[in-house]
Structure formats: C-alpha cells, structure tokens
Amino acid sequence: MPKVTVRYWAAAKAAAGVAEEPYDADTLAEALSGVRERHPGELTRVLLRCSFLVDGDPVGTRAHETVRLADGGTVEVLPPFAGG
Fold first, then answer.
1. Cross-referenced Gene3D superfamilies, in alphabetical order (predicted)?
2. How far, in Å, CA of 14 to CA of 76, rounded?
3. 24 pLDDT above the threshold of 70
C-alpha cells in the first residue's frame, strides 16, 4: 500500500492541529477516510469545503475513489481561501 503525506493548509491545518502527517492509502478516498477517522469533529466538517491536489495536480470533480495515490506522493488539503 502506498505511503503518502497529507498536508493541511489554513483552516484544515488549524482543525488537524498539524501541518502534515503520513497515511497508507491506495486512493484519495482511502486517505480521506483515514483523516476523518484520526480527526473526527471540526476537520471532518472542513473537508466538505476543501479542494485537493494529488502530487500537484488538481483533483477537481473526479470521484475520490478513482484517484490513485503513488508511494511517496502528497495530498494537499486546500480549504477555500479569501483574497486572490
């Protein structure tokens, strides 16, 4: 199973209480399930509003179950940002 790093930004970082952490997951859906299990509560609510980058590529509207993760990859959790 791939080992990936999940990085949290802005409100997601505040809710997680850490900037990043490792997960074992084959897909984005599995990684996010692990995040929700490890951080029930506010982070779970923040995730509903987030967009995601996997190894620098936007996930967009793709189903999270179809987004494969590579060993050593990175998932960026991006809440909506104010400004531009």
1. 3.10.20.30
2. 14
3. yes
